[in-house]
Design brief:
Distance between the termini: 17 Å
Order of helices and strands: EHHEEEEEEHE
Number of helices: 3
Structural class: alpha+beta
Helix content: 25-40%
Number of strands: 8
Strand content: 25-35%
């Protein structure tokens, strides 16, 4: 089952603001002054600009989580990861602005393996947790910090 990520307004403003900024530079920007190695209106400049725009759009539209049998597959744009659900020990709620395969600061912290931790932000947390519990029912759920939200 596929679970898209939550998307905060802050991540929306950062990603789409940067995309808009780059587009406006290419439309209204003047000629650069000085000795730039690569100007934005050159072939390498267009390639670099298109690559950055593609990466940002891929992250925005391609971030999500999939419970596939006994695997939890994570996608964050071009970056992919897999976690064996049987290795998951604990799930708790956290708020973290640090880098993770999530587009929201309201996240679930998953402890798995020996000392591994990953933060994710599925849109429907309760359904996501229930699908993990269907595979491994003895995952410890931190009920103090984790309230099931039905949206």
């Amino acid at each position: 089952m596929y679970f898209p990520t939550k998307k905060d307004i802050w991540f929306f403003l950062i990603i789409w603001g940067f995309i808009l900024f780059m587009i406006l530079i290419y439309i209204f920007g003047g000629e650069p002054v000085g000795w730039q190695l690569i100007t934005y209106k050159s072939v390498p400049g267009y390639i670099i600009g298109a690559s950055i725009l593609t990466l940002l759009l891929w992250i925005w539209f391609g971030t999500g989580y999939k419970v596939d049998g006994e695997l939890l597959k994570l996608k964050f744009g071009p970056f992919k990861s897999k976690i064996h659900i049987n290795e998951i020990k604990k799930i708790s709620r956290t708020k973290s602005p640090f880098t993770a395969p999530a587009l929201s600061v309201d996240r679930l912290e998953i402890l798995y393996g020996k000392y591994d931790v990953i933060n994710i932000s599925p849109k429907n947390e309760s359904e996501f947790i229930l699908s993990l519990l269907a595979v491994k029912p003895n995952i410890q759920i931190d009920m103090i910090s984790l309230e099931f939200n039905e949206k």
